[in-house]
Amino acid sequence: MTIPSAPTPLPAPLADRDVVIIGGGSGIGLEVARRAVASGARVVIGGRSAGKLEEAAKSLGEQVRWGVVDTTDQDSLAAFFDSIDRIDHLFTPAASYQVGPMRELTDSEAESPFVSKFWGQYHAVKHATAKLTSHASVVLMSGAASVRPPAAAPAYVACNAAIEGLGRGLAVELAPVRVNVVSPGTIDGNLWAQRPAHIRQASFAQYERDALLRRPGTESEIADAVLFLFTNTFMTGSTLYPDGGYALR
Ligand SMILES: NC(=O)c1ccc[n+]([C@@H]2O[C@H](COP(=O)([O-])OP(=O)(O)OC[C@H]3O[C@@H](n4cnc5c(N)ncnc54)[C@H](OP(=O)(O)O)[C@@H]3O)[C@@H](O)[C@H]2O)c1
User: Fold this and answer.
1) What is the pLDDT of residue 11?
2) Distance from the CA of 96 to the center of ligand 1, in angstroms?
3) Residue nearest to atom 15 of ligand 1 (CA)
4) Which residue in 83, 98, 117, 190 has its CB near the most CB atoms, within 10 A?
5) According to the model, what pLDDT value does residue 152 have?
6) Residue 146, domain extent
7) Is 105 part of a structural domain of the chain?
8) With helix as H, strand as E and coil as C, how does the chain read?
9) Does residue 103 fall inside a structural domain?
10) What CATH code is carried by the domain that includes residue 182?
11) Does residue 6 have a pLDDT over 90?
């Protein structure tokens, strides 16, 4: 009887690729960093807290470097990208903002999603462009509230819709560099773990009622979607909704 030989392992999809993740010190960005390393990439993670980045990089191994950067400060973005030679894949989930009804938020709270999440990503891509290789890809972070507002938060909803438009606009301007957007539903991960338990539980319960798959997603499920957008060479100008069918109902 002949013993079948073991199948030849597939090549690592990101071998010899340079990946930059701003917002890579926690949550979805950290999970994308973990998968990129497992897929063979060299990774740079950025964020505002050195301690958090150092700890994250240590947990990920020697393929990972880190740098402090604040996406709301263009001098900080310029210095961060100065220290990077080339970028094959860029992911920009970094953001911090307030969400709420127009009639309750101050103007600066209402503007904070645009300041941090929209302009933060716009300026991050602008400062990265000189380092993007001709076959590079960029993935912007949005959120499925763009197409189905979960509660009264009009500026946040509009910000996500604007990011999805930005992805299409940048795909046209930067081609052949590919630009796509990931727009997750509610995710049971680091961001919600920081919020008060009663708010988190109420939001998750609401999401279980609203989404076809009756549960929030995981950071790992969103990282899968980002890796797909990094590596599928025919994807550009698209928004992917890993949301358990939330936007449909
Ligand atoms: N989790 C969800 O349910 C969900 C759903 C839809 C969309 N999203 C979007 O996903 C993104 C990230 O969410 P996450 O779940 O991964 O949360 P997270 O763990 O809070 O990740 C955000 C990361 O960005 C960094 N950051 C924040 N502001 C920054 C700035 N101005 N400059 C540089 N780094 C900054 C934070 O680190 P420092 O504070 O140290 O800078 C943090 O590591 C957000 O844009 C959010 O709107 C999340």
Assistant:
1) 73
2) 6
3) 191
4) 117
5) 96
6) 18-186+220-237
7) yes
8) CCCCCCCCCCCCCCCCCEEEEECCCCHHHHHHHHHHHHCCCEEEEEECCHHHHHHHHHHHCCCEEEEECCCCCHHHHHHHHHCCCCEEEEEECCCCCCCCCCCCCCHHHHHHHHHHHHHHHHHHHHHHHHHEEEEEEEEEECCHHHCCCCCCCHHHHHHHHHHHHHHHHHHHHHCCCEEEEECCCCECCHHHHCCCHHHHHHHHHHHHHHCCCCCCECHHHHHHHHHHHHHCCCCCCCEECCCCCHHHC
9) yes
10) 3.40.50.720
11) no
